Give the backbone structure.
Amino acid sequence: MRIGPWTFPNRVFVAPMAGVTDRPYRQLCKRLGAGYAVSEMAASNPKLWHSVKTSRRLNHEGESTPIAVQIAGADPAMMAEAAVFNIQKGAHIIDINMGCPVKKVCNVASGSALLRHEALVAQILESVVSACRPYNVPVTLKTRTGWDAESRNALHIARLAQDIGIAALTLHGRTRADLYNGQAEYDTIKAVKQALSIPVIANGDIDSPEKARYVLDYTGADAVMIGRAAQGRPWIFREVAHYLDTGRHLSPPTFGELRSCLLEHLEDHYRFYGEYTGVRSARKHIGWYLAEQPDSAALLSHINQTESTQAQLAAVAHWFDLHAPDDFILSPATSESVPALAA
Ligand SMILES: Cc1cc2nc3c(=O)[nH]c(=O)nc-3n(C[C@H](O)[C@H](O)[C@H](O)COP(=O)(O)O)c2cc1C
């Protein structure tokens, strides 16, 4: 599949997750098989561009191309300005967020709240697409299936987006009202894929190679995007890509690979965030990586108290030293249930 001039090594993408898919994590996911990564959403309000948080989100040094930056907001002119600002900072693809259910975003009628205001959606898309056109930068849209079950308007929004010149659409198979509850549904994604000629990326609850195969087959989507199942499991991308290519499972990483993956991730994370924020924001990643390992509870409670990156790294390394390489093996990514496709 292509987005504008860009092609991708595979069709297994990492989903943008604010506070998770920062530059170190995106680079790690790409190294471990993700075909494409979009940055965490960045505010379109220029007053926030120079805040520490937003400037970090806009830092793409050393990241492999294409650099895709996600912007969020509800003001068409401000969104266009934010798109151009990001292009000037190195973005090759601009992604518009109309999927985020978070109150902070929805209260100002951005994120998925926009799905209730179709005329405003059209204005935002038109404004951003025309601002990016002179730079030949494609604009993509990430959204949900609608505001709630009674107003599932993704098909209408998708057609509108394609007509305006959006280059690809990512669809999370839930409404805003669903938040993250229940199961993602793929019928709307299938209907949207059938109606559009631009690439459609399916998202929601894809957590194993089999589930990715099922969703691609069921919806006909061009690619899948994986979010929460990649937390603490960045190698899921190579596992899924390998399965899609060969129909066979790749072995999960060994305990030694888990060790080097986590320790290298932490070092990169600390370099990116610095001492104070680094030690705090790394805690969730360590928890995700080790949650599945027996005997990690004491370590996890300890690292939540550590106040220095050096002490945190040493504690994690020591925990690995205490265990023999063959003590644990990671279990493969599996889905609770993958429906069978009708023949
Ligand atoms: C912690 C977290 C942060 C997220 N941040 C963003 C974001 O910044 N932009 C966005 O479009 N979606 C965001 N999402 C939604 C994900 O991109 C994705 O659509 C959703 O998690 C469903 O995919 P999954 O079931 O594979 O996790 C976020 C999700 C989570 C869990």
In short: The CA atoms of residues 96 and 141 lie 5 Å apart. The chain has twelve helices and ten strands.
